[in-house]
Amino acid sequence: MHPERSAQLLLLAAAGLLTLLLLLPFRSAILGAVLLAYLLQRPYRALEPRVGDRPAALALVAGTVVVLVVPFVLLASIAIRGVRDLYTTVQGDAGGGLEALLGAVFGTDVDVGTSLRSLMENGQFRDLFQAILDAAGGLGQAFVQLTVLLFLTYYLLRDGDALLAWFGAVSPLPASLERELCQRADRLMYAVVVGNVAIAAADGLLVGLGLFGVGFSDVLFWTVLSVFLAFIPHVGTMVVWIPASAYLVATGSVVPGVALFLYGAVVVGAVDNVLRPFMGSPEAGLDPALFVVGVFAGLAFFGVLGVFYGPIALAMTKIVFETLDVTTPSRTTDA
Question: Is pTM, for the whole model, over 0.70?
């Protein structure tokens, strides 16, 4: 190989490795932004001719922020309301204020002053302070990741077509092969993403209906939470309806508790366990069992987003091999 060409390839490899190392800490935000931009692509194309590219992208990103923040606001409001109700109850019964509240939570008498002195004397106060700093650092990191996700989503909506055109220009693959790969990838991603979203929404609504039927309060919150948890296959909504069933049985409502458990196991479980593998597997060209393997492998490698990217990665590997196999000159000659 020519020395100049070798130097160019070495420089390109070094630049690519450096870019990968820089982006690796933000892989979750980047993958999430790609997913959000894909989901928002169709609304953006409908809105952009009417209001312009920047207002359309900003409006959709703002709507995404609302969708992401509302469940956490609901969770915080219910938690605060629960603590306030517990404090009011304890204060009315025992009149002990904070110490009575802590005693009711932990099931034993708590002396706040003695506990603080014990922490300081044993050197554990420093560990407590370090834990608080670590929690604050985690919140700061989460804010940075969210910022990257939103900014990247905005620019992918605006300039995604230009980015794809640039990839096509620098790619050594034939234009016809690029078009075929992009079209199949688009159909695959649509099937996997829309299938998972539809199943999560159905799961969440079914769990909400079941909780409403047995008389639970704050059904809207539990429905929203169930929708988010339902993205974790085979496990997600069980985190809601199994403890709810156990709570009903433990408090004496045996029949509603058993009914809720059977409803969750049969109805909600059927939607998750039976329909999920068949929503994306036909378009992916994967056996439903391999599709499920892709989901769990994606969860292990990508985190929560692996629910989408695991099956997509497996299916795209299959698509690439099939496409290259068909377009290889020796194959077409033999045919």
Answer: no
